[in-house]
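Dear colleague,

Thank you for sharing your sequence with our group. We've completed the structure prediction you requested, and as agreed, I am returning the results in plain text so they can be pasted directly into your records. Please verify that the sequence below matches your submission; if there's any discrepancy, let me know and we will rerun it promptly.
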Amino acid sequence: MAWIYLVIAGVFEVVWATLMKASDGFSKLGFSIATVVGMVASFYFLARALKTLPMNLAYPIWTGVGAVGSILVGVWLYKEKLSLATWFFVGLLIIGIIGIKVTSKH
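Please find the predicted structure tokens below.
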């Protein structure tokens, strides 16, 4: 169950980052409130995952999922452009996340 919590936490991290962009510097109340709700949900599920998983495993995976997810949302939703070199490093992030999981004992 801890892994499910960790994935949900990572998804909510992407959600709140996306909503923060939509809040336009916290100038749009609805998006600002939704950002905070997303943050609370992300931290809640991360805390649940940390009850079972070690921090040195859960935290980097959570941030990695959030980073890669936010990059993909930026490209898809906001039409942000990435260079080929940047895509290479995104791939390294994904490999790093997988490597952390595969080499852990959990």
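Summary note from our side: Residues 16 and 36 are 7 Å apart (CA to CA).

Kind regards,
the structure core
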